[in-house]
Amino acid sequence: MSAVLQNLVNQPYKHGFVTDIESEVAPKGLSEETIHLISAKKNEPEWLLDFRLRAYQKWLTMSEPDWQNVHYPKIDFQSISYYAAPKPKEKLSSMDEVDPELIRTFEKLGVPMHERAALAGVAVDVVFDSVSVATTYKEKLAEVGIIFCSISEAVQKHPELIKQYLGTVVPVGDNFFAALNSAVFTDGSFCYIPKGVKCPMDLSTYFRINTEGSGQFERTLVIAEEGASVSYLEGCTAPQFDTNQLHAAVVELIALDNADIKYSTVQNWYAGDENGIGGIYNFVTKRGLAKGVNSRISWTQVETGSAITWKYPSCILRGDNSVGEFYSVAVTNHLQQADTGTKMIHLGKNTRSTIVSKGISAGRSNSSYRGLVRINPTADNARNFSQCDSMLVGDQSGAHTFPYIQVRNNSAKVEHEASTSKIGEDQLFYFAQRGIDAEEAVSMIVNGFCKEVFQQLPMEFAVEATKLLSFKLEGSVG
Amino acid sequence: MINQNSQTILNVKNLHANTDGTEILKGINLTVKSGEIHAIMGLNGSGKSTFAKVLAGHPDYTVTQGNVQFEQQDLLAMNSEERAQAGIFLAFQYPIEIPGVANNQFLRLAYNTVQSKRGNEELDPLEFDDFVREKMKLLEMNPDFLDRSVNEGFSGGEKKRNEILQMALLEPKLGILDETDSGLDIDALKIVAKGVNHLSNKDNAMIMITHYQRLLDHIVPDYVHVMESGRIIKTGGKELALELEKHGYDWLHSHQQNNAGVSA
Question: What's the average model confidence in pLDDT over A92-113?
Fold first, then answer.
């Protein structure tokens, strides 16, 4: 059994509410019974159970990917609990009992957890471990026909939509972790914007892994009908445990004719300590289908947490004139590893994609950009612009770029630019000689480096991301 | 200018410093009083720039002996940002480029950090904009330079003007100009010199490190020091620079030897 993950199961939770949690945690291990149990717990229709079982059968035939530039001990999937549902009341009151280090962390970030959910003018779905505990502004959104709820609720109330779209962008057997997710996903957010509706407020999902020993497998599905538009935000945190936890989510976006989906993530899962002990394995599949003409899918991500990040938010540009965008900042410190990037698959005519990736590596960490730009024969006059910039802080970190470009249409125009820079002692001395200390200097340099990506974030997220980065790199120099 | 009521700003005694185990400074003694302008000359490798960096607290250098008083404080006990906040300013020989950081942001952060440490009011972005534009006129700088990244793609002259602009903003007690004249054409040199002269007053002091007399035509020093092998080997008035210009550094050696011969 994996040394890292063997303690991941059913350990008494450190902070007091063991009994209540235990009653809701599924026995460790993955089998058809586990899937039956999850499906029954959620009172799911037969077709969804079939979907899960198909995924499980597929998953059994697959092997864990090993091509990514990250290193970790083999995960023992039989040592993970696939369902954890602490009772909402206890969870919320338990905030006081969470590791004080975490509370301090949030205070330092200026992002108290309670306020997060109460951000004015943003509708929030809060997912705690395996279940969605609250969704705000539901009624107000319903007035304009927008459905925003947990995916479990959507399965009950809008089964036709789920049946129509679930697994159409990320098929059950797409990849090892997506198959696993399809088999065991427990909750997540669902969002449906009807024809012609511009969503009047930002929608937000706030994910939190709370229970030690559980994996989190959430599923998000966003559908924008013809002419609809929505801006979706996703935030993630997890408390600090010495064990690694697996987070394998799937996000599917579907944009029909003239629809526009903007999906922003600020990921701050627990990253492990400075010796690389603990932290989240963030193995996530995110993909958007720009299905209709003139549709647009835009991903913005700020990845600061997780011991390991493995994610490639992608766009399939099927509609003519559709647009795909990927703006990313990935920060690693200490012993963190990130292998992240995107895929832009051009199928329609006059499709355009933009990739702006900024990787910052500090400490002994390693950060890789991995991206695919594929222009299919049908994609006349497709265009892509990619820019991958890496910044090294100190002299023990690593930055890598793996761009894959496949062009099968002569009318395509594909550009790739890359740069590597380093925050060196001379720069810091220059700041110091002007009275500015190293922390502030690094923060200023890094924020300057990430400017193009932060500009894409909604205001409050941009502010948070800026703070997060300064905090993240504190102590990484000198 | 030398005046009777001046205060001692800097007092360097027997300063030794090394880098990577090699001793570069081998016993420097220097006193600088308010209102004075000092020039330090000498051949490449004589330790002039090292002296400047050691005063500013560059982490590559280790002081092994001696002490430095700056305004009655122990300078060597302070880290480099504390020295800057206390009023030491180094105009870099090779100003560093900082891509992605706009000059106005950088200047305002430096200004506000230093001001708040000195117990003065900070300026908000609008107030600062007015303030910095006023200072830029002195150095005949194009306002668009505020939006460009710090020193990135600047010409040699622009970089040096930017250094003097920062000195104008931070109002140091002691300005150290490390070969500010190198890489400047004569017009840029005049503008920079005008800026320095404007900033020089009875309460502060300047140390100029240079190879050439031509800078000293525009900024007239009260004292000229000649460095060799990590020590100041000769000190004189402004006419010493003229002599050096005429005869070269070798002259100094033969001259010294002759002197030595005479006194013996």
Answer: 40
